[in-house]
Design brief:
Blueprint lengths: L7 H12 L7 H4 L3 H14 L9 H21 L14 H14 L4 E4 L5 H19 L8 E7 L2 E6 L2 H9 L3 H4 L27 E6 L24 H9 L21 H9 L4 H12 L4
Antiparallel strand pairs: 1-4, 2-3, 2-4
Helix pairs in contact: 1-3, 5-6
Length: 294
């Protein structure tokens, strides 16, 4: 059966099977629609090594059912061995690259399983993760429209991404708080529901970033990203006109990097198009906009 023909509960269970863990909340807590869930299933299935028919529920289910059973058997056989030996055969560098590829593919809907990384892997990932946050998350017009969920001691907790929460996350995004130091850090963390303090990144087993479903869009005074691109068969004169409105045939350049035209929000881009404002004035306005939630 196709994924679109499967009910939400079975899709939820399939996702749990793929990531090999039980989620603390129900389907609606993590996804706003069936399509969002299916997209995550496809992304994480491919990330975990599945290369079969990506729209075949039974094929995906039995692939991961067999994979998890084999993993369980291996864990029982190796109980007496050093726990620091990793089952994942991929190098830490490859895993970090894989994680970043998934983040860049969907900057506002992603998941990181830190259990796949040792301290060397975390060191490789850290500077790339900092750059990702600066390039993508810092530029979100309304950060409160999103939430961050983190898993600590096998328990999931989630927070709306308020300016204060985001500030804590970024302040902790350095080597002192990202790399687990067994000599100086107590390896247990008791998260108090409703607590304002966010645990250090080193204690995260996993992190998920997604849209905050309960956000009240009626009070949204910010902008949002235009999610469509120009059809390749569109007349050239229309393409040129739409380019002035910050709408393009592709979101990336020839080097597969984000277009520089998308570095600015639509307001700054529109002012820049008039030619009436110098760089110093535009930079002051950029600073004012970017510091709204600091």
């Amino acid at each position: 059966m196709k994924l679109s023909e499967i009910d939400n509960q079975k899709l939820f269970q399939l996702f749990e099977l793929i990531i090999n863990e039980k989620l603390a909340h129900d389907f609606n807590h993590y996804w706003t629609s069936k399509e969002d869930c299916i997209r995550d299933i496809i992304d994480f299935a491919q990330q975990e090594g599945y290369n079969g028919d990506i729209d075949n529920y039974d094929a995906i289910y039995w692939f991961f059912k067999g994979k998890r059973n084999n993993t369980t058997q291996e864990e029982h056989q190796n109980e007496s061995k050093d726990e620091s030996i990793k089952v994942d055969s991929k190098s830490q560098s490859d895993i970090a690259k894989q994680i970043m590829k998934q983040l860049k593919k969907s900057p506002t809907n992603w998941y990181i399983d830190f259990n796949r990384l040792d301290n060397d892997g975390r060191k490789i990932l850290l500077p790339q993760l900092i750059d990702f946050f600066k390039e993508h998350i810092d530029k979100l017009p309304i950060i409160s429209k999103y939430k961050i969920a983190f898993k600590v001691d096998n328990q999931w907790h989630s927070k709306q991404l308020t300016p204060e929460v985001y500030k804590q996350l970024m302040n902790n995004l350095n080597e002192n708080h990202f790399i687990f130091d067994i000599e100086n850090v107590v390896p247990e963390y008791f998260y108090e529901k409703g607590a304002e303090k966010i645990p250090e990144w080193s204690l995260f087993n996993a992190v998920k970033f997604s849209e905050f479903k309960s956000y009240n869009t009626n009070n949204d005074i910010g902008g949002s990203f235009f999610q469509y691109v120009i059809h390749e068969k569109c007349p050239l004169n229309v393409i040129k006109y739409l380019n002035k409105l910050q709408i393009f045939t592709s979101l990336v350049n020839k080097k597969n990097q984000q277009r520089v035209e998308l570095d600015d929000c639509c307001f700054i881009y529109a002012l820049k198009q008039t030619g009436c404002y110098d760089d110093d004035t535009l930079n002051k306005m950029r600073l004012r906009i970017n510091s709204r939630y600091q």
